[in-house]
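I am hoping you can look over what I have pasted underneath with an eye to the fold:
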Amino acid sequence: MFVGFLAFFVLRTCRGGNAESAPVQTTEAQSVEQAVVEEPDYIDINLLMVGDILFHYQVRQSGLQADGTRSYDHIYEHFKSELADKDIKVLNQETPLGGAAIGGDAPDGFGSYPMFNGPQEMADAEAKAGFNVILRATNHALDAGYEGARSELSYWKEKFPEVTVIGEVNPDDASASIDDVYVYEKDGFKVAVLNYTFDLNGIEDPNGIVSMLEEEHVHTTMAKARELADMIVVFPHWGEEYETQPNEEQRMWAELLVEDGADVIIGNHPHVMQPVEVLADADGNPVPCFWSTGNFVSTSPEDMSLLGGVPEVTLRKDKDGNCSVESAQMKVVVTHLGNSDDMTVYLLPDWTDELAASNWLNTEMNPNTDNTTLTKEWANDFCLQVLGSDFNTQTGSLTVDLTDVPVTTSTVGDEDAETDTEGTGEGTSSQGSSTTGSGGTSSTSTTGSGGTGSTSTTGSGGTGSTSTGSSKTSSGRTTAGSNAVTLEEAEEEAEEIGSGYYDGGSYDEEEEYDY
């Protein structure tokens, strides 16, 4: 009985994580040298995220080879080294990769605005570069319908089972639920990664295969994440396109996410970068919020849309079980359109004046675009305007000050909440942290200008509920009302502008590249 009790005691001690191994019984005639195995002081998980992969016509054509095959390795050639030392490597697949079988109305047989669909060879390039988490909860998630989602998700599962796709589930997979929570684990340190979208461009989702930014679903999945993981990183698809500042709806959702346990928030959808702010949780811990990363690769018709942010965050768990955001920064990349066939993405410091001079948008090859100012100097000036004076033009990055933690004074939903009108009156007490305007302060802390394995668990399904500032689609799921547009409206807008519409701008539709 004593031996059995000792064995049980030793097992419990190992599970408890003591720094030293359990004692070994010795006799006078036998001396056993005990090996002391020391725990590391902490475990770090390094996360990186790139913004929208907008599969515009010219991006698709850049991968077309002479023999008719496609390869998109060139897109990541000058960036992939950034992934080498990262654990969680996230990419926002803005538009579907349904493949040639799904097709589309563009001249290359795929789909452009408003119903995108692209070649699945892009998935090959993304996996080869090293990305291991793909976000699919976007407003374009169902552009290719359930058939496109089925084709894309099957492709990922069959060819790259080591890559996790979140935010959308295969409509044919009865074992999958949109309430599943993906948890990345490294040496016992667990980080939950969640993805939501505010809208589906009016397209119905009767089976609920896309993770929506609606309250009941968010509360359900965030609660599950708190049970399963040590820390939570959330990727919301939100905001207004081509706006360089977050709107009140983003702030409302950010507060809800922080209240539900988010440790880091990284947003996208506006196709341009927005500032980085430090929010505060209930215990006063810093919660970096990257309001929008912008695009990673695209041919969007705005210079600012050819620049994108790359958030990098280090999450830490010490040997006592305490967790923290150890560091956060955002680097900047630029889509180099070149002469179309050499399209790629550079870190901003690596994008030289010589490269800028050879850029497709700066030559007579595309006379119908307004993109005539994209130089390195212009790019740095834009980053300083949006990200603030702390943006380092030499390193092309913004280091987030996590020590400047605001006081939590939540006022969202409070009808009596006051607006700070000191100074310029730019700050509004709405987020529950502290924002510094040019003359007065309110309650958000803004950085810059003021302005090895994985597990997944399945839970129960949830139904949609209406939230502040939202409207319901015909499927009954809740989406943000400010940008919601029906498919019919989108098609009418595209028809008025012409088939050259590039998700926000127009070109000469008679030219082949204008799709």
Q: What stands out?
A: Residues 1-29, 409-491, 493-515 have pLDDT under 50 and may be disordered. The chain has ten helices and 19 strands. The radius of gyration is 24 Å.
